[in-house]
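Supplementary notes for students who missed Thursday's class. We covered one full example, reproduced here. Read the sequence, then the structure, then the short commentary at the end.
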Amino acid sequence: MRSPRQIAALLVFLALPLASFRLPSFALPFRDRSAAERELSLAADPAPWSPDYPLFLQDVLAHTRPGDTIALVVPTDDWDGGYSYAYYRASYFLPGREVLPVITPENRAVPENVARARYIAAWKRQVTGLARRAVFAQHEGVLLER
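Structure (token representation):
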């Protein structure tokens, strides 16, 4: 048989972890988190890219289909100076699409990817000399289709 003091100590010991839980955290799995998800997905991008680049990529996703090839043109031609970020971010935002880089990690141009792509997604950059139809132009970018 336990003493009342031991029983009280056991109850306090069991009550401490329960007291640390907040009720809103229990409800989190049942809440609509879509607004927070949108906000957090846009907040992940650093200053020169946010908020327009992720919004542009969302528009590219909405106007293309799985399996489409998309050449990516952005303001920088330096792989380590931002192109790699733009390329990998586009690969993340455009699931099911093949994002083709127009710059290699050695900073060489890849014109055959532009020729091979069905679409050119150009953000904050003018694309000239290509006979392509503009699908949309917003968020400082344009999507061109062959």
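Commentary. Residues 10 and 16 are 10 Å apart (CA to CA). The chain has a mean pLDDT of 88. If anything here is unclear, bring it to office hours.
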